[in-house]
Design goal:
The complex is a heterodimer of chains A (about 120) and B (about 110). In chain A, about 0% of the residues lie in helices and about 45% in strands. Chain A is mainly β. Chain B is globular and about 45 Å long. Classes of the chains: A mainly beta (about 120), B mainly beta (about 110).
Amino acid sequence: DGGITQSPKYLFRKEGQNVTLSCEQNLNHDAMYWYRQDPGQGLRLIYYSQIVNDFQKGDIAEGYSVSREKKESFPLTVTSAQKNPTAFYLCASSILFYAAENTGELFFGEGSRLTVL
Amino acid sequence: AQKVTQAQTEISVVEKEDVTLDCVYETRDTTYYLFWYKQPPSGELVFLIRRNSFDEQNEISGRYSWNFQKSTSSFNFTITASQVVDSAVYFCALSTGANSKLTFGKGITLSVRP
């Protein structure tokens, strides 16, 4: 089945450590996104990538980094510079960002919950 | 700039009650798309509906119905005869199509009690 796979589902980190969240999709989508979800805050965009080897900052990119070396993969690194990293992280994908038929619809993974100890 | 407002934060109902989730949006574009997503306790956002700005026809899908009114910039979602499985966080979202990112509201937590 086509879809988006995020791993790990739960992750614990000590302060000062970097952690990387994995996101893989087999939908043949060009665009991929990372969102952060906090209680009562909705979804906030961290980074997005429209094509391989290209990505842009979203609304809350500070303390995060990404790479897009393959179309299928868009890993997110939460660095020690992120002051409050405990949150639920969602990865999503969509068809080509600039495609005329792109309605903005996103397809989501099941999320990764990061807790800083 | 785009904005989506979900003024209700938490709603609690008893099973079989009808419930309406409100969504108000702002955009200057004449072409746009509105979405509702459901987030059950498992975490994944599940797509429920997409509506484009040129189609104001209301839609019904089983117990779910959506009321799109451009005059009030609203896209409300009604669940008829709610069930415990409807308990989730519901997000309304807006996009202006190509080259546009999806803008989400803050979500409404719906609890349906048996």
